[in-house]
């Protein structure tokens, strides 16, 4: 078994320097850290987790709270979770995955027991009831998502306000003036989930500025619910020529129902989606879309929380800029 002393000799540093690189207790220059990490990898060194925890009073675990609800698109959440786990492992941390809908109870359990050194929270609501506990506990924490008030918090997310505006601007530039937004399930808005609310804020602001008529309808995402939602949209706004979809489950039913009604995409109606690229490109019509940068969000969240564990006390809000990819589903309106 390779020892810490052997790693130190291989890297040409002291044993204490290797220990500091592993524990994060002191700041080590980037070249030295890289040299030590390269030696660890080349020698196949695996520090004893129990010994490290006793020596540093740390568990070397990051808790990731991912409430798996029936009204969210789980594959995106899992893609973020996998990115968190792989990035954490690269930094020498394991991940404790909390998937229940316990809310504050789960925060109390983690912060009160020493189960984890830090926390990453997902599925953030504008007035998230977990946040007061996090402020009180003062445990290193990063949110993937934005609450209404970000003071004293570190957050990373796609800029959903800019995303909504970008989708509206794209359709407006093509000449569309009547746009319907097919949103998440109603429960997502009832919880005031941050990403959904912020997307609507961006859409509404852009619609006012560009003179668009905007109609928003939540949808459960099933074929039956999409059928009812689409009928309601065309009853209320028969001149609708553009759709913006922020609900992955609703995409295939929407395209199928438009075909059944004899509405061609994009000749009769255009569709823009906010969804992962693999969803957009595998649809029956390749969708113009804004991608969800799930892996980047997970990676950035871990890097921010590791920085906190290494003594960085600053707070920041890291918003990833949206990128719209034009594909086959958007074009000028039929007039």
In short:
Residues 2-56 form the HTH lacI-type domain. With 335 residues, the chain is of the alpha/beta class. Helix content is 47%, strand content 16%.
Give structural notes.
The chain is an alpha/beta fold and 335 residues long. It folds into 3 domains: 4-56, 434 Repressor (Amino-terminal Domain), CATH 1.10.260; 61-158 and 294-320, 3-Layer(aba) Sandwich (Rossmann fold), CATH 3.40.50.2300; 160-291, Response regulator (Rossmann fold), CATH 3.40.50.2300. It is built from 14 helices and 12 strands. A 6-stranded parallel sheet has the order 2-1-3-4-5-11, with helices on one face. Strands 7-6-8-9-10-12 form a 6-stranded mixed sheet, sandwiched between helices. Strand 3, helix 7 (131-137) and strand 4 form a beta-alpha-beta unit. It is elongated and about 75 Å long. The model has no long low-confidence stretch (mean pLDDT 92).
Describe this protein with a few key phrases:
Rossmann fold; six-stranded mixed beta sheet; elongated; 3 domains; 434 Repressor (Amino-terminal Domain); 335 residues; alpha/beta; 14 helices; 16% strand
* Strand order in the sheet with the most strands: 2-1-3-4-5-11
Identify the CATH class of the largest domain. Answer: Alpha Beta
What's the domain count?
A: 3
Instruction: Give the overall silhouette.
Output: elongated
What structural category characterises the helix and strand content?
alpha/beta
**Helix coverage percent:** 40-55%
Oligomeric state of the chains? single chain
| Average pLDDT metric | 92
Strand content: 15-25%
CATH homologous superfamily of the largest domain, by name?
Response regulator
Distance between the termini: 74 Å
């Amino acid at each position: 078994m390779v020892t810490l002393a052997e790693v130190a000799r291989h890297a040409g540093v002291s044993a204490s320097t290797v220990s500091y690189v592993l524990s994060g207790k002191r700041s080590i220059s980037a070249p030295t850290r890289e040299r030590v990490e390269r030696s660890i990898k080349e020698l196949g060194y695996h520090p004893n987790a129990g010994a490290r925890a006793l020596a540093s009073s740390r568990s070397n675990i990051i808790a990731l709270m991912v409430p798996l609800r029936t009204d969210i698109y789980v594959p995106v959440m899992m893609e973020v979770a996998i990115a968190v786990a792989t990035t954490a492992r690269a930094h020498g941390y394991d991940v404790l995955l909390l998937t229940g809908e316990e809310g504050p109870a789960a925060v109390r359990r983690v912060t009160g027991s020493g189960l984890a050194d830090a926390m990453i929270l997902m599925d953030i609501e504008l007035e998230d009831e977990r946040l007061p506990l996090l402020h009180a506990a003062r445990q290193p924490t990063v949110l993937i998502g934005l609450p209404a008030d970000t003071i004293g918090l570190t957050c990373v997310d796609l800029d959903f306000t800019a995303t909504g505006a970008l989708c509206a601007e794209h359709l407006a530039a093509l000449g569309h003036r009547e746009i319907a937004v097919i949103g998440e399930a109603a429960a997502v808005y009832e919880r005031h989930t941050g990403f959904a609310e912020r997307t609507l804020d961006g859409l509404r602001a852009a619609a006012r500025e560009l003179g668009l008529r905007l109609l928003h309808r939540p949808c459960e995402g099933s074929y039956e619910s999409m059928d009812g939602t689409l009928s309601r949209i065309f009853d209320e706004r028969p001149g609708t020529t553009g759709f913006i979809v922020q609900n992955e489950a609703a995409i295939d039913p929407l395209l199928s129902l438009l075909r059944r009604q004899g509405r061609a995409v994009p000749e009769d109606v255009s569709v823009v989606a906010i969804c992962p690229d693999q969803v957009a490109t595998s649809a029956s019509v390749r969708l113009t879309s804004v991608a969800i940068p799930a892996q980047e969000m997970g990676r950035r969240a871990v890097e921010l929380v590791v920085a906190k564990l290494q003594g960085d006390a600053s707070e920041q809000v890291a918003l990833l800029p949206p990128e719209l990819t034009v594909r086959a589903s958007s074009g000028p309106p039929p007039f």
